[in-house]
Design brief:
mainly alpha
């Protein structure tokens, strides 16, 4: 039971970390994009057209990027479940082969 609680605690930590990233990633991406543009631009000028384009793109990509974290977590759970089913089916197939030999 202690091992199970350790895994549950780790899962909740990862979930909390993913929620933190989900909430802060659009803000950090916006700041990073504007900072890079200002540092690499020759005249250090950010036009309204560029600013609103970047904000619209980040707004459009917010939902897919947020779902990517959820998708990766579900993929990890599905792979683990597949391993468990494979082990169970393999054990059952091994028992059937032993019965046939006897």
């Amino acid at each position: 039971r202690a091992v199970e609680l350790g895994y549950t605690r780790l899962e909740m930590f990862v979930y909390g970390l993913s929620m933190l990233l989900m909430v802060t990633s659009p803000v950090v991406a916006t700041i990073a994009l504007f900072s890079v543009h200002m540092l690499t631009s020759a005249d250090n000028y950010l036009s309204p057209a560029d600013a609103f384009t970047v904000l619209a793109l980040i707004g459009a990509l917010r939902f897919p990027i947020n779902k990517l974290g959820t998708l990766l977590g579900q993929l990890a759970q599905a792979l683990k479940a597949f391993e468990r089913i494979e082990t169970f089916v393999g054990a059952a197939a091994g028992d059937a082969e032993k019965d046939e030999e006897e």
